[in-house]
Amino acid sequence: MTPPTVELDTPPCPVLPVKLEQVTKRKTGSAKIRGAHIHVSLPQRWSNAFQTKVTTELVGKVQKQFEADWRLLHQDTSPLLTFTDPDIFEDWVRLVNLQTLNVPLKSVRIGHSKYTHLAQMNIKNRVMTVSRYCLNRVPESALRYLVIHELAHLKVANHSKAFWDEVKPHVPNLRYQRNLISAAHRIRIYEAERFQQPLAKPVITEKAVIKRPSALPQPARYLKQLLLDLF
In CA terms, which of 15, 29, 40, 75 is 20 to 30 Å from 95? Predict the structure, then answer.
């Protein structure tokens, strides 16, 4: 992972509360971040002492990962983007497409995924769906990576070497951007659930016409939003 070029003051990372679930048929313990808390699932047959021991270990590991995500997101110096209008976001995606892979994308949607896909490409109908939590004050470089990742699936459906060969030329610091978009997704979900905050409204800063090759269908709309607020 490539560290950010400029070190910034990082706000204190919150300690996530824990919710414990005891499951009759479960054989092992697990812990995952679920919104604004850590969800721990343990076998009901375990003794209280052993449950306490395992819970402490699992929660420590998950909290450590959350703190790493927190630092990564708050220390990154990329401009932040916010998209709430599907049409404006689609214009931005099409612009990125034209600048990079130039694949025949049909349409773009904003989804609500929290715990499965940050984004996904339907290979059959060529529709891209991106979680709204990846569009709320997200680093521009990380979102650009996510979009290029999905566009590349219209050339290579799997994650083989051929797929990454399509992505790498367009994404400097690939591993860093992968970690950054994942961190942004988790942190924005935490904030939305912890503080019950609605998604931020985009600040319209500029208008620019997207010029598409004649081979692409749909007429160009106005790109109403480029780089937005900074931390």
Answer: 75
